[in-house]
Design a protein that fits this description.
heterodimer; A: MetI-like fold; two-stranded antiparallel ribbon; 13 helices; 76% helix; 3% strand; B: 471 residues; D-Maltodextrin-Binding Protein, domain 2; five-stranded mixed β-sheet; 20 helices; 11% strand
Chain lengths: 289, 471
Amino acid sequence: MRTKRLAPYALLAPAMALLALVFAYPVVAVVNQSLSVPGLFGVTHRGFGNFSIIFKDPLFWSSLENNLKLFLTIPFMVIVGLLIASLLYSRTSGWRIYRSLAFLPYVLAVPVIGVVFSYMLEKDGVLNEALSSVGLGFLRHDWLGNPSLAIWSVAAVIVWQQLGFAIVLFLSRMIAIDESLYDAAKVDGANSFQRFLYITLPQLARVIEFFVAISFINMLSWVFSYIYVMTGGGPVQKTYVLELYVYEDAFRNGLSNLASAASVVILTVATIVLAFQAVVRTRVDRIAV
Amino acid sequence: MNSTSHTDSGDARESRLVRREFLRNTGGAGLGMALASLLAACGSSSKTSSASAASGGRTPLLIWYWGEQEAPGMQKFMEQAVARYNAQQKRVKVTAVLQSSDTLYSAFATAAQAGKGPDIQYLWGGTQALVDVWLGYLAPLSDYIDESWLNANIPQGARSQTYWDGKQWGMPFYQIGTALPYNKKLFRAAKLDPEQPPTTWSDFMAALEKLKGTGVSPIGLGFKDQFLGGWLISYFGQQNFNSIAEAIAPFKGGTAYAGPTYTEWISRVKDLVDNGFSNNDVLSINLYQGQNLFPTRKAAIVTSVQPQITSFYRTMGGADTVGVMLPPAFGTGTLARSFGVPAQVLLITKFSSHKEEAAEFLKFLHTPEMMQLMYKVSGAITPDNKFDQAWLDTETDKTMLGWQKSLPDFWYQYYYPLQFETNGVDPGLQKLWEPNGSVAGAVSSMQSAIQQWKNQSPAQAQAYSSWQLLA
């Protein structure tokens, strides 16, 4: 009897051990490392000294600020993604081809995208030449070389790549919506905007929430490749993000303790985002019920 | 001196533990970059295993190296050198793995933490190699090669860049004499004497004005990837110094990085910016893209290193097209007319089980046969007193080797802490290309970077402060 009761745990044990090894142990170890404050040439005591140092570092804050700027792409992607998904859902001619084309950037490797766009966005690059050739030369800019523009140029590239995911995600859910809901709404005299507002949007709430949460985490801890390839954090360190800050401290400056502390900050913010998502999901579930 | 050494060694061991913990942690934490590095390391580890299995009873020796970017042909040289070494003796089997620029440091750091990796590691010289010495990843070369051999063969300038705590750590692999190649045809078009390049700042500015008038970029620069700062400070930042000790004083402590002695050069760079003497997309292209404006004849002068200049010379029409000049002098120090000859180094790793064999191979690379082969295949010169000027086949190389023998050898980048460059010099100089960029702003960035380095890296600062230059 007792063996029977323990059997499920025994079966789960290998998976749990693997999870602990792969996820829990490293996280605990990073936190532990972040609390090891090096004195001369080594660890001399424990405390929050590493956090104190990075919190006093203007570059840390400007890196975080850039991550926050990238968050602004999320509502844009949601709105544009919904619009395009709605257009495709209306079965315009060739919609399957458009759907594939929209998704294509998402399957391309980020470094490849970064390199291609780096060349396109050069001051004498393809984009500026194209603008000049159609009489829009006044719009020419040094997209990656101008400190004020560079982070937004990278953001635009991220949107270009990630938007396809939003479109496919939203469209998939739209296709699964019960047609009878729309039929009933039509019978009740609802116009297309009202059908979108009162049927499509609520039905999409969960996937939108999922996309937003994933995008928040992406913008916080998955933009390193774009930045590293396209700007390297420059010009004038204006495109640093937290991941690059960690990388530079760990692998170029030999400041592993500070890198650990910055990693813990990223982890904390990501955890807060996930917690927020959990709260939102609970509310969405209540609305659905 | 001895007690200092003991302290340093013990501290370095502790530091090694700190970094080992970190890398183990971040590797598991799932950060994409750490994962990529780990994957790279795994790939390399598997190569290590393969090398061992394929050594057929011979001692396997693994080298991770770099250099193809600045000395095209280096890979070919290394392959040939390894093949000859493996053929001429039966005890050791050498395997050389070319690293990319992005993995050179991160893969080695990961491997060093695991205590498994190459027996010989390539690193950029000077403080960029000494940081890994201070972390305890490397073994002193002078423990395995006689001091008398080092003294007899390696030029002092090259030795001093990785000489610390009374020991030689790096074996200079190839040197990258840094100068300014110029296009003689473009000089002629601007009515400049191609055989008499400017030597003073005022002459230089006048020449650039004439070149600009012909429609080319007088100087081709690329600063997007933030490597250019180290070049500019090393071309111009030493001109008011009378000694290397003076140059490193602000980092050792007690001297401010301020006043004309240290910061006049920034005004000179600002002169170049304000007069529009560089291409108009400096901040949107990388260093190598800026240098590539030279072979495409879009720029008359570029920053470059000796092997690359040799490549230009060989592909662009020889002495009729390519000349080489020193950075023009404006300073009053004895280093105003100096020649920067940074040496990239090969180092024996602390965790290598075959340090003696590694040292033997490093000496093999300094045999006349190998030095000639390296120059022939890659255009790179081995920093070795035995290197014979008669082997050189380009006028630019002969000129530069002449400078090396007659002028002080100093390349600032290899003597200051890297954080000074990444957090101070690079962003500070990039500001100069902004509409409101000022010299004062750049100086402020550099001063802050020094203070930040001292605050954030007390261990490195302590090690640096005990740096006694090779007399």
